[in-house]
């Protein structure tokens, strides 16, 4: 990468941090995970090692084998006198057994529900869900990304666990994740956490990765995630590689992608042929023709359920987080995204992208011939709707 490209990359990542919806941190150690069991084992290990606090905000905290394993780890740590706080989303965790959260509360864990769907209750709502997967231990280490707490992410429980991407952050980026957790904790009415983080935001750690932690906080900071994507597409000079489970972005982001592709920026997008949300697949397919006309290349993943959310800009910067590439995540939900400036992390993500392509097929102009007529009809209607958003 030449000097101009490096300066441009630094400029847009620094721009993200100017309005308080993103925090620039230096000297982090970053570990990528592509399998859930490895993440859950690492989480349990770090929770057991906690000395000051453990804070968790989770969209889907299920009461199955994985969820109860984490719940037990949190309860044990709370029983030993370490403050433990949990925020779980009312819709994302709707299938969970309330008894699990009651047991955690009895063990001393401070448990709060994010926006129950009950108008008669204080702090209730429907739109603007807490879609984050954010675990912070002592302000020393944090986990975030696409994996919720549930068996579908575990090879021990699921015959074919979901393909996802998660990240562990050690360094001041963990303190940044704690900063955004405090926003969620305040939103649900919790008392402000008083514990100090092991790392400080204004001091670099000893790792090799500089990270920008971006926190989309519902309607109040709804532009944070959109700005992350828009600035990334605008600043890229050669190539953008994306892996996303849903491709239904708002018109403003689509327009930037179209413009940059027509200007010669190479864009490769990996999506599932059939995700866990059929409607999102139909909407995405309605965009194929026009975006392919503009030069954007699509690949459909045919392996396990694809739930990963990652991007690579110019083989230099990587983005991993909870935000889907859809209207809800970009404009409404509470999300967390990590921009990593580290060539080693970029290479790992690129290697995984290439492995995923081995289970994928390029979308060609005759893609519609393999879809039933009603699915093509939904795609056409959906594309018309997206152009209005």
What report would you give on this structure?
By secondary structure, this protein is an alpha/beta fold. It has helices at residues 3-16, 36-49, 65-79, 98-106, 172-187, 223-235, 251-262, 278-285, 288-293, 327-331, 343-357, 373-386, and strands spanning 22-33, 54-58, 84-89, 110-114, 133-137, 141-145, 166-170, 209-217, 239-243, 247-248, 266-272, 297-301, 310-313, 317-321, 325-326, 334-341, 360-362. Strands 4-3-2-5-6-7-1-8-16-14-13-9-11-12-17 form a 15-stranded mixed β-sheet, sandwiched between helices. A two-stranded parallel ribbon has the order 10-15. Helix 3 (65-79) links the parallel strand 2 and strand 3 (84-89). The two termini are 36 Å apart.
Question: Uncertain runs with pLDDT below 50, 5 residues or more?
Answer: 1-7
Task: Report the average pLDDT across residues.
Answer: 91
The overall strand count is 17
Classify the beta-strand content into a percent band: 15-25%
Helix share of residues? 25-40%
Radius of gyration: 20 Å
Distance between the termini: 36 Å
Give me the strand/helix succession: HEHEHEHEEEEHEHEEHEHHEEEEHEHEH
- The oligomeric state is single chain
In the sheet with the most strands, the strands line up as: 4-3-2-5-6-7-1-8-16-14-13-9-11-12-17
Give the overall form: globular
Q: In terms of structural class, how would the helical and strand content be classed?
A: alpha/beta
Discrete helix count:
12
- Sheet having the most strands: 15 strands, mixed
